[in-house]
Amino acid sequence: MFESIKRLFTAETGESHPELDPHVAATTLLVEAALADGIYADCEQDQIRAILSAAFSMSDEKAARVLEQAESLAETAVDHHSFTKVVKACLDKQERVALVEQLWRVALADGEKSPFEDAFIRRITPLLAVGDRERVFARSRAEAHMRPR
């Protein structure tokens, strides 16, 4: 009886995805950043696709599959720990800082600074073992990248 209860709780806490691909976990965080303000705009989705192509060198087909899987996971996620845990374990510090910059790029893609997206990234950054200073610099780089030239 206790074993069945244990299995029930581990399935609900997100530990049912130990095989989660690090790219899918990172992409899920990008989708969650886009969803933080309650609006998942096409420009945010396009930004995520561009990140997948550039940062992870994915083909358009693979990027579409990863994004679809990440969107599905983001819809059903109850917390972010299962995703940040995988990312933290699989990406080195420099790659995690780059991911924080990508989170900012997604959040800024719609041209609006949302306090909800800001709060989401502030919550996620320590879970990725990225410091406040690095988060601020990552935001500055993302803002500079997003400015029209």
From TrEMBL:
CDD domains in the cross-refs: terB_like_2
Record-linked Pfam families: TerB
Superkingdom in the source lineage: Bacteria
Co-chaperone DjlA N-terminal domain: residues covered: 23-139
UniProt-listed SUPFAM superfamilies: TerB-like
Classification via InterPro entries: DjlA_N (IPR007791), TerB-like (IPR029024)
Protein's recorded name: Co-chaperone DjlA N-terminal domain-containing protein
